[in-house]
Structure formats: C-alpha cells, structure tokens
Amino acid sequence: MNPASCTLSKGIRRIRGNIVEKATNGFRGGLLMTQKTIKVIIAEDEPSCRTFLKNILSRHSNFEVIGEAADGEELLELAARVKPQVVFVDIEMPEIDGMSAVKRMLEKNEELVVVFVTGYSDFAVEAFEISSFDYILKPYKAPRVEKVLDKIQAHFAEREEDLVKLSSIFKSSDKLYIRCGHELHFVDANTIYYVEKERKKTIIHTTGNRYETHEPINDLEKRLNPADFFRSHKCYLINLRMVEKIIPWGDNSYLVKFFNSNNDALISRSKVRLLYQLLDIGSE
C-alpha cells in the first residue's frame, strides 16, 4: 500500500473511532418493548353477556374495549371505523350471524384475533376452520375467559418480539434493504462501493451486483452506518472502507478510486476539505 493510501486508511479508522459509539447507539440499540393497549370489540346480542365480558376485560389495563355491537351488521360497521385487534363474537346474532361477519372481516384484516362465543360446542370445529383464535362456551365462566385473555396477551407479546427481531435486521448497520420494483433485496453493506443518484433513480454499486431503486439517496443514507459511509457529493455516497485513493479531477471535483473496481465516484472540493478535517490531515 502506498503512503497516501496508508494515511487514508489510518484516517478512516480515526473517523470510525470518533463516531462509532454514536453510530452504534443509533443503529444497534434496538427497539424498546412497550406495553401497548390491545383494542377489543365485543359483539354479543345479549346485553348481560356484553357486560360480563366488559367487566372482566376492565380488570386488565392492557385491554381496551373500543366498541360494542348487538348484531353482525353493526359489528361490520363498527370494525371498519375503529379497527380492532381483537373481537369477541357471538356466533348466533341477528341480521348477519357472527361467522359470516368474521369471514368478511378477515378478508380485510387477516391478523385480526377472533374469539367466538357460543352456547353450542358443535360450532367449535367450524369456528377453527375459519381461523378463529379461540372460542368460549356459554354460560360464561370467568376462569375460562381469563385463560383466553392470557393466551391473547402471549400472542401479542410474541408478535411484538418478532417485529423487534425484524426491525433489528432492517436497522442493522451491516444490512441495507432495497426496494427494487416489487422485490426487496437485503444487501451486505460491507460489499457496497458507493451509492449514486442518477436522474430519478438511485444505483447501489456492490462488489458483485448493481441495484436500481426509486428510493431517494437521502433515505438510503439514513439506513447506512455513518461511521463507514460518507456523503461525498449531492449525487454520491461512498463507503470509506472501500476507498483506495482520491485524486484531483477538474477544477472543483475529485475522483474517488476503489479497491478492486474500475468504477469511480465524485467528491466535491468542499467535501474533500471536510474529509481532510475528519482525517485530521492538511490539504494542499
């Protein structure tokens, strides 16, 4: 490695040392688990049964009854308006029966948690066939309802844990997810040479591929580790780990050369000065 490249590499390590703690906190801190309120609708044509369920739910601070319905038609209208996460549905209701209403609701929200309530165990098999979460037989018994509530809470806790894991992948400084048309690509950030804005497209140049996306370069910059990626120009974002040398090009720009690549990126004169400051080296 020539002296200039050696100086550049040492300077880059200095940049990373100065800001890596901040970058680590921002990119690898993860998400805090927060106890969110689970929004519930009770659909039951008997007022006393609605009251029974509502009283049990009121003992749990993480459940919130956001609406009540006395028939299937009212349930559909209410659900479309308030967007519940959980519905307790009596199978035998006037206007539209509970099962028919739920089938229509699941078409719009397949993640909806459905608990059927019925006085007939024969309905249990059919209830599970249309993706119900659980069922409760009448007459209501508090221990059975509590057991279902525990199951629902465990379900949402597991779902939130899965979302946190996915989020940690998306926010990882070592991975960049890129929307290319209808496809989603997960790219190892360490393989990226540079990101380039070209008219209405953004192009990601890597060691083995070239990805085109309509995502703005500014958005991609936010998802990459600032300890490694430097905005060298309004149209370029370079991976400092991949830089071999920077050479003058014209009056106001410099060319960025990369290891094992014939492609070049631009760096403006003002950004060169900024980079030299970060590297703690003088400019000629």
Overview of this structure, please?
The structure is a single chain. The chain has helices at 3-28, 47-57, 72-82, 98-108, 123-129, 142-171, 217-222, 269-279; strands spanning 38-43, 63-69, 86-90, 113-118, 134-137, 175-180, 183-188, 192-198, 201-206, 210-213, 229-233, 236-239, 243-249, 253-258, 264-268. With 284 residues, it is an alpha/beta fold. It has two domains: 3-30 and 173-279, OB fold (Dihydrolipoamide Acetyltransferase, E2P); 38-168, Response regulator (Rossmann fold, 3-Layer(aba) Sandwich), CATH 3.40.50.2300. A hairpin with a 3-residue loop joins β13 and β14. The model is unreliable at 1-6 and 15-34 (pLDDT under 50).
Distance between the termini: 21 Å
How many strand segments?
15
- Poorly predicted residue ranges: 1-6, 15-34
User: Number of folding domains?
Assistant: 2
Would you identify the CATH H-level superfamily of the largest domain? Answer: LytTr DNA-binding domain
Structural class category:
alpha/beta
Shape verdict = elongated
How many strands, which pairing sense, and closed or not: the largest β-sheet? 5 strands, parallel
The amount of helix comes to: 25-40%
Radius of gyration: 29 Å
Strand content: 25-35%
- Average pLDDT figure: 83
The topology string of helices and strands comes to HEHEHEHEHEHEEEEEHEEEEEH
Topology of this protein?
Layout: H1 3-28, E1 38-43, H2 47-57, E2 63-69, H3 72-82, E3 86-90, H4 98-108, E4 113-118, H5 123-129, E5 134-137, H6 142-171, E6 175-180, E7 183-188, E8 192-198, E9 201-206, E10 210-213, H7 217-222, E11 229-233, E12 236-239, E13 243-249, E14 253-258, E15 264-268, H8 269-279
Parallel strand pairs: 1-2, 1-3, 3-4, 4-5
Antiparallel strand pairs: 6-7, 8-9, 8-12, 9-10, 11-12, 13-14, 14-15
Helix pairs in contact: 3-4
